[in-house]
Structure formats: C-alpha cells, structure tokens
Specification:
Layout: H1 23-31, H2 35-44, H3 48-53, E1 80-85, E2 104-109, E3 114-120, E4 123-129, E5 139-142, H4 150-168, H5 180-196, H6 201-209, H7 211-217, H8 223-246
Parallel strand pairs: 1-4
Antiparallel strand pairs: 1-5, 2-3, 3-4
Length: about 250
C-alpha cells in the first residue's frame, strides 16, 4: 500500500467548505469532476450545445470549485429569486441597493440575463435580475407560475428569510455544527477524489477516518469497509448524472 498522505484529496480540511454548500453548488462539485465534462471544457468551451448537454447555459471552468465558480444551470434552481422593477411602487417601497448588501457579491451574465450571487458566511443567495432593474429602484420578487406552486412558494420564502438575516448583519454569529447530510457530502467528495486518483478502498478509508479505526475495523464485510464502498459508489453516481437532481434539472 503506497503512501497517499501527500495526495491532494488526503487532507479532510481541504473539504470543509463543502459543509456550507447548497444544492446547486454541490451539483457543480460533482459535475466538475466528470472526465467527459473536463474534456468538453478543453475542446469545445465556446459551444453552447456542449453546455446544454450538461444542464448548463455556459460551460464553467472545472478547475474552479464552488467557492469561485457560479455555474448557470438550465433551467434555474428553485432557490434563484427573480427581481423585477415594481411597476406600481409604494412611497416607502424597499429599493434594490446592490452595494449595501453584505458579503461577497458576484455579477455574471449567463448568456441571457444578469445574475447576482451573494455569499455571506454560510449562506448563498442567487438573484436573476430582470432587464431594466437599476440600483435604487423599487423591485418585486417573482416565481414561475405552475400547476402546483407550493414548492416554489416555499423556496421563495426560504430565500427571503435568508435575505432578511443577511440584511440584519449581526456583528457575530456562531457557526452551527454540521448536519449528518453535510458530513455525508464532504466524505462522498473526498472518497470520489481518492478513487479518481487511483486510491484503493483501504487507502481511501485511512484518508477519511484515520489509520487506527481502519486497522481495528477493516474486515471482509465490516461496517467501515462497506461504508467506504457506499461513499465511492454514491460519488460516482452523482458525478455521472446524479448531480442533476441536486441542481433540480430533471
């Protein structure tokens, strides 16, 4: 068994940012690892047809992780909040003020419209800006009309709750403990990277859980070995199409 401790996938600390990613960002983390996607980026980066096949409006650089890349999924994830000019604003209407919003802000054009991404602590908000919306202008939120709108209403409410928290700008806030689901995504991505780098199941387990737990619990059909095998299979499944569910493309 070779020494993998210097491999890029080995330090778990390098994956801590994954704990704070939402569905669209996680979808990108799995897609950018797909070998065929990486080839498309190198060979056909200007072709929109290649992007559409992956569920994107435009191809995004797979070398960028979700902290730097903001891929434009097609269609939009339900968490994207549409902002339109208010055609009949009240005298005391809230106005759109880009630079008063805290956190890191990214403006990008996805080939169709401007998209604003706001990262603040462990929250991420995505806005699709309608043509004609300007800074200082009263605005309205919008969602798509559909036969069963309850899910869209709920997604909009969640987004507005996040926006309200961001607008409050507390001086400090304690980070919560990661949930089991968030830890699962961290371990899945680390296991997937280990597999793509050629690591064995046992080497992957040592990187994820340490030498002593593996030495004590690595049996033919033991729990730890089965756990790592499931993580690898889950990562491969998400990379090879399962990411579409995270991005709500299907």
């Amino acid at each position: 068994m070779s020494d993998r401790s210097k491999d890029a996938w080995y330090p778990t600390a390098a994956y801590l940012y994954v704990l704070h990613l939402d569905g669209p960002a996680l979808a990108w983390e799995y897609l950018r690892r797909h070998p065929d996607y990486r080839r498309d980026w190198l060979r056909r980066r200007r072709h929109s047809e290649a992007a559409h096949a992956w569920g994107l409006r435009l191809l995004e650089d797979p070398a960028l992780d979700a902290r730097e890349a903001h891929p434009a999924w097609m269609p939009d994830h339900e968490a994207v909040i549409q902002l339109h000019p208010d055609v009949d604003p009240l005298p005391d209407a809230v106005v759109f003020e880009l630079w008063r919003m805290p956190g890191h802000k990214y403006l990008l054009h996805d080939g169709k419209r401007l998209v604003l991404v706001v990262d603040w602590q462990d929250r991420c908000l995505r806005f699709a800006l309608a043509p004609g919306l300007e800074d200082g202008m009263a605005f309205a939120y919008a969602i798509r009309a559909c036969a069963a709108s309850s899910t869209s209403y709920h997604a909009l409410a969640v987004g507005l709750d996040k926006l309200a928290v961001i607008a409050a700008v507390p001086a400090a806030s304690a980070r919560r403990r990661p949930t089991p689901t968030e830890l699962l995504e961290l371990h899945t991505l680390q296991a997937l990277d280990a597999t793509l780098a050629g690591a064995s199941l046992r080497e992957t387990a040592i990187g994820l859980f340490g030498t002593e737990p593996v030495a004590a619990g690595w049996y033919a059909d033991g729990g730890l070995r089965s756990r790592v095998r499931r993580l690898v299979r889950r990562g491969q499944s998400l990379m090879r199409g399962g990411y579409r569910r995270l991005a709500q493309l299907d």
